[in-house]
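We keep the chain:
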Amino acid sequence: MSALIDDLLYFSRFSHVELTRESVNLNALVESVIGDNETETSGRNVVWKRTPLPRVWGDRSLLRQVLVNLVSNALKYSRKSDPAEIEIGVQESGPQETVLFVRDNGAGFDSRYAGKLFGVFQRMHKASEFEGTGIGLASVRRIIARHGGKTWAEGKVGKGATFYFSLATAPTSPVSSVRKS
C-alpha cells in the first residue's frame, strides 16, 4: 500500500512540476538507466541492443524517469526470456521531432488492449505474475504529453512489446540560456 501511495503522489507531481527544457543527451541517460539496473540483470542473460540516439529538447530528469519506467518494464516482462533482448532506438528522427522506442521479447500483450496500457491502474497481466502498481506507463504518458509528444505501444502475447514516444528534436544552434547535458 505504501508503494502505491508513493507512486500516486509521484504521478500527481508530474502535472505540477515546472519543466526545465534543455538539450538532452539520450545516450548518456540510457547508459545511466542501464547501469542502475545492474542488480536486476545480474545472473540473467540480457542482450542490450542500442542505436545512437539524437539529442532531444526536454526536461532531463523527467525524460530519465520515462527511460527508467520503460527499461524497468522491459526487464520485468522479459524475465522469463533467455536471452532477454531489449532494444532502445530511434524509429524516426527529423528536424522537428524524434520518435524513440524501447522493445523487448518478453510477455507482450494483446494489441486489442493497447489503448488501456497508459491508464492509471491498467494492467494487462496479473499482479501475481508481474509486480507493479499500474502507475509507470501512465507516468510515461503524462511526462511525454507535458513535452508535447505522444506515446503508443505495439505487442503480441508471448512475443514482446514495443513502446514508442515522440519528442521535439533539440535545436542544433546553441542557445545561451540552455544547459547541455
About this structure: The beta strands are 21-25, 46-50, 55-59, 84-93, 97-104, 151-156, 160-168. Residues 173-181 have pLDDT under 50 and may be disordered.
